[in-house]
Fold this protein.
Amino acid sequence: MHKVGLKSLLVFLFDLLALVFAWYAAFWLRFNFSWPEDYSDTVLIGLLCLSPAHALACWLAGLYRGLWIFASLPDLKRVLKAVGGTLLAMVAYVVLLTPQPPVPRSLVVLFPLLLVMGMAGGRIAYRMWKEHRMFGALVCQGKPVIVIGAGRAAAMLVRDMERSPDWRVVGLLDDNAGKWGRELGGQRVIGAVDSLPEVASDLKVRHAILAIPSASIAVRRKVADRCAQAGLQLLTVPALEDIMSGRIAVNAIRKVEIEDLLGRETVCIDTANVAAVLAGKCVLVTGAGGSIGSELCRQIAHFAPARVLLVEQSEYALYTIEQWFAQHQPQIPVVPLAADVKDAAWLHEIFGEWRPQVVFHAAAYKHVPLMEVRNAWQAVRNNVLGTLNVARCSQSYGAERFVLISTDKAVNPTNVMGATKRLAEMLCQALYSVSNATRVETVRFGNVLGSNGSVIPKFQEQIACGGPVTVTHPEITRYFMSIPEAALLVLQAGSMGEGGEIFVLDMGEPVKITDLARNMIRLSGFTEDEIRIEFTGLRPGEKLYEELLADAEHTRPTHHPKLRIARSRPVATDLVREVEAWLEQSASPTDQAVRSKLQHWVPEYMPADIAAVAPLQSNSSQQA
């Protein structure tokens, strides 16, 4: 405290000296650099009157709260406030005391101008001297880097990087031609983003930083392509809301991830409508620890539910999501329930005790090849029986809404997993046709970025190990959306449904997996010569192209631009009874028997060629 008080005292004395300088210099300038002897009394009395007024004005303006090393625009505003107060005191001196000879009128301009120059200039000079002492040795030491963008975030980044021993900004690029040739933070805006390869070659640069936090996905892709052409590693700054809130500094740069290029524009939902469905309600989520289920829980928490029931088979996943609530949303009561959706008796106990009003069913087996060989019956039990159990409980215990999370693989399925999800959709339609007290709805979408077991984490691991990156087929494509986007649209669809609908999410344009692999290799700083791509052939049940609507279906729009409703063929009401009778058998049928039965109920299901699977099955038979 003593050191801080001493510094404040020194600053105060400096401001008084600035007052003396400005007052005397103003008279000196007014009389053409010669001192007017007859004004000595006027000058001295005026200085004695202004000194206490100036001290009070500086204190009221808060000048001694800031640190000089961080002197900036807010400090200049405080200086102007203090000078304004001192100027009022000077006017009062002139009017009330009427000194003789009178104070020249030009001092009303000269005096405050010189005072501002002295007080503000001293602070700026000190900051420049201090920063030179602290960071001057860092100049020209860091790795050269090009900053892409010449806006507010870029200005903050350039300023912060002046103090960094790791980076040295050598120029900026921006597509706004009006900024070309100008300087930002002492760095020149060289040209457009398209010139990046040439600029990088001229300046011997290996890194670029995208300093446009609000850049669209199209802009990010364009910059990534230019960096790939130039052989540069692309980095980016945090999101604008994180920078402006102060949670993350602008210089907390990170590598550009594939999610930055595949993601889409921010999703807007009807929050009032969603809140009306969730606020104050008891909400149950199955598969609550999975990729989609856990994000659903996090998004649901924003709408103030009365309670969230976390139903999850995996103990660790259940613990993880329960701990998230404890840390981030402790005010929301949660009930972690270790439960298997195939256990109808335990589900009845859960529903009977807690009476959930809104149910999101995200629990499912989703890995296509794993469910195709030896696990077909388990896929049926988990995806079909599990859905039937949860939907039936929702109806029996008076839930207002039941929402099934489905998949694009349910459309014209070529694998067991997709066929089981399509059969689950059909059962939900049949249940709603019999009893519509509970609004039973389905939401269908494609792959989500970074979900458990998805292709992106797999590619990241393969690149980290030096390759190769394995792709099943050169032409294979998939739809992608971010996990938060999928969860938000599920909530939006769940709040819109009247019952019996299959909502189809707008998945955008399909992405070729080969291009995805190439982009991930480049973003990791490698070339395809260093990390090669290897084609391994389609896996059991896998198809080249995913679809979001079956051939016999058509859609109708909703009031949300990213949601449409599929009109599928009618489902027989006796389907539930037939499927239940099949599921009650004690023996586990063979994979082929499961496929045959699924084809009976899901005629669009056309199993892919499983010749590659046959040797595995014959070998296991011989071993048995």
